[in-house]
């Protein structure tokens, strides 16, 4: 049973606790607990998928406990030797440091910096010898490691699993030993690694950490977990308008999950929302607007949320052009009768409004680029000075023509 004093802490936004009774006893003891959160600095940005877990950490901090942020700078330099993961590229020490610096700046938008200790894996793995590696690997068998679902599937189907990959769970588990973690936090996809940390602590004479697993937040595509590499994420550093617009784009079926995991809306109110959704007595658009407001307010402020909603209503519901459109210069090839022939590709690429020529071609083929409300099929256009270019759903720019003829 969940202690009533810790009901919200141990129930809302929680998938599984191992072992719940033991964690409750730790909380009742009044001791300052060491809460482990590992971070793979393969990407510099935090998105709402990370926030689901970070909010739970903050709730523990508010009760007086301490977060130990473990930055995986050592393992990030190895990358993914199997080539299976696009999200774990091999990184240089400089890239790791830059990503970690950005991550921590965003991390402390949710977590209390004064109640957080930052540790770098290289503190201990930088001194590891072959003897240390052999002692660590002797704690587990190949059969134990192949019990991890993704390893087992690949091995059973005849696909290779490298020795380096098998080391990753051991290294993550050893992090818990070094920092003497009381509780490790992670998404449900980290269950195996967190449990291995429990076993490793016990084998080395430490009390076994408790494991606190949070659900994986589904991204804006409505299908896969939120991930920057899948381009279905909502970054916490995005502008209020971009953040609001992306929240409004999520499928209706995710509204309740987002309320539960990412906002402070009361449980009773969320239950009412759920009932209204089930009975069809509410327009999901209205709930989504409330959700978008709550999320933007959390990472910006209330006024920014109000302005973002006004922008969304004007541009996406009424189809009007937004105010304060940024202006970019495009070079004309020639002019005739007040029109300029312009190739929009160089400026869009230079200003990183599109990532590549291939993305530009894809957007044009999808009719996702408009000039003054007309869909474009080619990057070569005839335009007057001051034309409005729309890229995708939310990006508007005003074209200033440089007549370099």
Any overview of this molecule?
The structure is a single chain. The chain has 405 residues and is of the alpha/beta class. It has 3 domains: 4-214, 3-Layer(aba) Sandwich (Rossmann fold); 240-317, Orthogonal Bundle (Tyrosyl-Transfer RNA Synthetase); 327-402, RNA-binding S4 domain (Structural Genomics Hypothetical 15.5 Kd Protein In mrcA-pckA Intergenic Region, Chain A, Roll), CATH 3.10.290.10. It contains 18 helices and 13 strands. The chain has helices at 7-11, 20-29, 48-62, 73-76, 93-107, 122-125, 130-137, 142-145, 149-156, 163-179, 191-203, 240-248, 255-262, 267-279, 284-299, 302-317, 345-350, 357-365, and strands at 16-18, 34-39, 66-71, 116-120, 183-187, 210-214, 327-336, 339-343, 369-371, 374-375, 380-383, 388-391, 395-402. The strands form 2 sheets. A 7-stranded mixed beta sheet has the order 10-9-12-13-7-8-11. Strands 1-6-5-2-3-4 form a 6-stranded mixed beta sheet, with helices on both faces. Strand 7 and strand 8 form a beta hairpin. The longest helix has 17 residues, at 163-179. It is globular. The protein starts with 6 loop residues before the first helix and ends with a strand. The mean pLDDT is 86.
Keywords, please?
405 residues; 3 domains; Tyrosyl-Transfer RNA Synthetase; 18 helices; 6-stranded mixed β-sheet; Structural Genomics Hypothetical 15.5 Kd Protein In mrcA-pckA Intergenic Region, Chain A; alpha/beta; Rossmann fold
